[in-house]
Amino acid sequence: MARPRAVAGCRAPDRRPVSGKGSQLELRREQFSAELLDPRHGFDRGRFPLEVRWDPLTDQSCRLLPASSLPPPELQDLDALSAETKPGCPFCTERIESETPRIVPELWPEGRIRCGEAVLFPNLVPYANWSSVSVYSPRLHLLRLDELTPSLLADNLMTQVTFARAVVEHDPSSRWVSVNANQLPPSGSSIFHPHLQGSANPTPTTVQRLLAELGPAHVREYIER
Ligand SMILES: [Zn+2]
Question: How many C-beta atoms lie closer than 10 Å to residue 205's C-beta?
């Protein structure tokens, strides 16, 4: 395959046909209750329901507690955080060219990968052999989830696909690729300006290994259903 020299038309990759249809994916859940003598109600006997659900793909389980069991997430003033972080933001238009890294020329001579408004560059704090950051747009320092349009998302994902293809061609051992996002501080983003993070490693993460062991047919069936 010829190495992509540009993100031609920002075209989405071809999809392979779905296989593995016909079997059933079980959405398993079980409900339990705990009993204790509750000091908040004169040590009367109290019953506390809870539910365990299993992921039909990986069999990982999670526990659901009744509403009000835990304090609600703290609300954050995104407008105030945006105004506070914008003056020094390295991903904004005024600084992105001078303050973000460039890709090594043997991988991508242009230094950064662009599609639409999206721009991809190496992560200054690498956590993989090949580690990237891609912003939806240098002009969008604040981008709420309900403002994220299909084209902004598609263009940003395409920079990640292009980066991954270039890495795998240049360094075939780094075939374990992932694209991740923490959208704004409420989901744990360390830099406010909305962005994706990509990585390519010679070894899988735990979840990549678990998914790979399932086989592609099972994963595709899960996604389609
Ligand atoms: Zn910014």
Answer: 13
